[in-house]
Amino acid sequence: MTPSAPGSKRAVAASPIRHVLLDADGVLQELPGGWYAAMEPYLGERSRDFLHRTWKEELPMLAGRGDYLPVLAANLQEFGVTLPVAEVYDAVWKNIVVIEESMEVVRGLRRNGYGVHLGTNQESYRGAYMRSELRYDELFDVSCYSWELGVAKPDPGFFTEAARRIGVDVRTVLFIDDTARNVEGARAAGMAAEQWDLTQGYDVLAELLARHGVSAG
Question: Care to name a GO molecular-function term for this sequence (predicted)?
Fold first, then answer.
């Protein structure tokens, strides 16, 4: 992160933003090589078709409706993968790398007195893994997983419920996500929001935060 600019403390004091809500995938963490590459050992050139099918069928589970593993198992069987579903799930869906530079942003925001929260679309198995094994509950003040909220991004209801769970006015929260439609959903709910992903670098993130009078430096 770049050093705070002169006058930034005054901007922070004047800003209505007192909480930052962060997406997970693409902002805090990544799947090394991406999803398609992760599935190639099992499906080769059919990885893209497989993932787009299972992602579509996963949508209700992101909102807490249904069990994802049987759906994934049925799709694997249809594509001729005979390995146990748990083995494939652990190798791909749980292959998460937490980005240390993003964790430093979280720590910097907290040092500056902001509430820092997680806002992510996840079905229950991956969400539980992030909560327990990645220890996100210890890192964030409030963790907002779509499967627990009962509504998924980009639905504005996700952001309304997230603010309710945090216990604040939606207008005091800044949301950072790597997907444009999720940013649009947050803004439709009255939440400040900016699009950013890991490939853009942390100087860009610092600039986006500064637009809202927020500093992690």
Answer: hydrolase activity
**What are the residue ranges spanned by the domains of the chain?**
8-30+98-211, 35-92
pLDDT at 20: 98
CA distance 173 to 95: 30
What region does 7 belong to: left with phi over 0, alpha with psi -120 to 50, or beta? left
Pick the CATH number of 8-30+98-211 from 3.30.1330.60, 3.40.50.1000, 1.10.443.10, 3.30.70.330: 3.40.50.1000
C-alpha to C-alpha distance for 1 and 194, rounded to whole angstroms: 17
Encode pLDDT of 6-32 as tens digits: 344 545 557 899 999 999 999 999 999
Residue 75: both structure tokens together: 């799709």
